[in-house]
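[job 4471] stage=fold_predict status=RUNNING
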Amino acid sequence: MTTASAASPPAHAPELAGQTVVVIGGSAGIGLETARRARAEGADVILAARDPAKLERAAGELGARGTAAFDATDPDALRDFFAGLPSPVDHVMVTAGGPYYAPLDEIDFAEALRHLDGELLGPLRLARHAAERVRPGGTLVFMGGTGARRPARGLTLIGAVTAALPALVANLAVELAPVRVNLVAAGFVDTPLSATLLGEGLETRRRQLRETLPIGRVVGPADVAALAVHLMANTALTGATYDVDGGQQLV
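[job 4471] inference complete, writing structure tokens
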């Protein structure tokens, strides 16, 4: 028996062949990696993001079917984007947005309202528009997190969103059936957004996670992308939240 045959991954038919995957927030990080994984599984991809230059670079790299540069928190722009999509598409993943951390005495309530609108009303708007464009059995995949499940100073707002999203997704799965709806809840993921948030503390955080996580390494965008594409391909999965945090909650 040769070691080469043991090490080679089993061949399989592309899981998303002939399908179309829309990734909102698809120009970098988790969104870009999910689009790359979907392409490897045979899908056409349509990428949407705010930054036109980054979007065009990503589209050129992947050979995207189409792109759209807009702010996903703008209700009119979101409506127009979905109205312009070919019908039907098979899957929509949303990675746009980011966390809002602030202790109670420092909360900017205008910013907090914008965050709540984007994180809670945003998925509802998207689901309403996507219902007319996603084929039966296709999926909506939303992104959430695990880090704010443990109460701590500065996590009041994001903790409330973290608790609300699984209920929102479960109810959408009932309302939109047979379109499937799922939530990916990530811990720390080593992305450009993480680098921006942590600044000079990024390498310290990476080292801490390598030393403490049960998996012995830092979770990367490819780990999240693999889960997202599985949720698209596995037609038995809907209405649930799937954690991908390397065991971070256990430590």
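[job 4471] summary: The domain at 15-186+225-243 is CATH 3.40.50.720 (Rossmann fold).
[job 4471] exit 0
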